[in-house]
Amino acid sequence: MKRVTRMLPALVALAAASACAAQSAPAFQAQSAVVVPAAVTTSPTAAPKATPTSGSGVARTAKKVKLGIADITPMGEKTEKVGVGFPIIVTFDRDVKNKAQVEALLDVQPEKPVEGAWRWVSKRKVIYRTKTYWKPYQKVRFTARLSELPGNTGAKDVSRTFAVGAKNISVVNTRTHQMKVYRNGKLAKKIPISAGKGGLIRNGVDVYLTTSGVHLTMGKKAVETMTSSWMGVTDPKDPRYYKEEIPWAVRISDSGEYVHQSAGYYQYLGRSNQSHGCVRATPAGAKWFYKITQRGDVVKITGTKRKLQWNNGWSYWQLNWTQWKKGSALKSS
Asked: Which residues face 130 on adjacent strands?
């Protein structure tokens, strides 16, 4: 029997999209990243001082803020625990003119030291990744010393502390149709799966294949609405149309790949690849995986001819350490 299309979202160009589509953007238990104004500081809150005025009643020129932070991902220690692969993603509120100067003011202090480096991915966004995975069960302190940036006299230093949880590393073998989940180095569960079957070529890319490589979990939803809109099918009368509520959906890329509960067709799990790009799991396995997932957990997928691109979601571990460091604005010592 021919399988009915059932899967996930494509938030990038169709050429890179998987054959799945969710209605909503990536989410982590209905939470989103917190915006960090430039004036945020780690010091105790004080009452605002009145702006000095001249004798004519005109306010004097305030201290200048040339650069602030618009967003930091992930969220702080009181909101979530993150996986051992998690990146620190900093988005500034305007284009950064002197990247090296700004990068030198960004500090990362883990309780359990590990080498790391920043990589600029746009004029406003820089990402921190470690050489090897973070050690589990620790706190990591990030500080942007923006007050020390020349000409940025009105800015405040910004800090955030992250809490690293358990070391969750999942290995998906699309040839044996199994997912093995390791927690803190020990095999915790084997889950029968069905991955992408292939067969739909878009701009030279088989978008029905699951991407092989080191993924990171980016978010999760207990129920995700998945539709056929990613391939331009929005008419319910079209035989290719679908709109389904999929349980226990954990996103692992921007191109619409998830680990989620299979919408029926359980006879294929552990036996063959029948999905349109996602990793389908048993109801019990998908629910268990959903509950233990932290953003930044590692999901390694093997066995397909479609390679995961390093900038597809949080797939930064696709670059080796030498390649990653080339994105830094600071000269290597």
From this structure: 116
